[in-house]
Amino acid sequence: MTSEIRSRHFNPWEEVQRYQSDHIDAGKYGATASFIGSMRDFNEGDAVKTMTLEHYPGMTENYLDKICTEARQRWDIIDCLIIHRVGEVRPDDPIVVTVVWSAHRAAAFDACRYLMEELKSRAPFWKKESLASGERWVEKNSPG
Amino acid sequence: MTISVKFFASLREQVGHGDASVDASDDLTVQQVWSDSCSITMPANTLCAVNMEYVDRFHPVNDGDEVAFFPPVTGG
């Protein structure tokens, strides 16, 4: 069970592969569910050039760990991984990856969705968009 | 005998500073820490944390606590 904050670009596909080969016992899992969130180049009808992600160091890590622990308590899963970017991101850059390994697909799907939804509503991250007309804070998340 | 105060994101820009400290006193609440550390009214959607755990604005604050104020979170 691992959660990480990254201040530099990361490749989610390589991270999943590396984590799986380092931490998940071969033959024990039958399902891997992952979600990758990336930066769009549009929001609220405007073109977005870049985005800067800020967080509350310490509390963010606490809440990501807490969310992983809750997922393990609620579902029969083997392991989970969360990686989240901070700093400046550009369109197409990955922002977050959540991954769950389990014996069967239902737990992996449900726990992966839980990690993502709880992260979006509880982990203290904030986004500031850079537009042609200036900068603005993202005030709320999309409903889903 | 102080309380450490932090403001994040748009709230930091509205308040005008990211960090502050206030003197500890008896029966201190999160709301009072806000009033002692900035000059604007707390926006209705402000989230509050004490020692990195979410609390409401009536939560008690003790000497040495870290109190944080921030807008709705938008990660992911």
Can you put this structure into words, describing what you see?
The complex is a heterodimer of chains A (144) and B (76). Chain A is an alpha+beta fold. Chain A has one domain (2-18, 29-130): Molybdopterin biosynthesis MoaE subunit (Aldehyde Oxidoreductase, domain 3). Chain A has helices at residues 12-23, 59-74, 105-122, and strands at residues 2-6, 31-38, 42-43, 46-47, 50-55, 77-85, 87-89, 94-102, 125-131, 134-137. Chain A has a four-stranded mixed beta sheet, with helices on both faces. Chain A has a four-stranded antiparallel beta sheet with strand order 7-5-9-10, with no helix packed on it. Chain A has a two-stranded antiparallel sheet with strand order 3-4. In chain A, α2 runs antiparallel to α3. Chain B has 76 residues and is α+β, with helices and mostly antiparallel strands. Chain B has one domain: Roll (Ubiquitin-like (UB roll)), CATH 3.10.20. In chain B, strands 2-1-5-3-4 form a five-stranded mixed beta sheet. The model of chain B has no long low-confidence stretch (mean pLDDT 97). The interface between A and B is medium-sized, with 27 and 17 residues.
CATH H level of chain A: which superfamily?
Molybdopterin biosynthesis MoaE subunit
Shape of chain B: globular
Main interface: chain pair and counts: A-B, 27 and 17 residues
- Note the beta-strand portion of chain B: 25-35%
Order of helices and strands of chain A: EHEEEEHEEEHEE
From the helix content, strand content and strand pairing of chain A, which structural class follows? alpha+beta
CATH architecture of chain A, by name, is Alpha-Beta Complex
Report the CATH C-level class of chain B.
Alpha Beta
Number of helices of chain A: 3
Computed CA radius of gyration of chain B, to the nearest angstrom: 11 Å
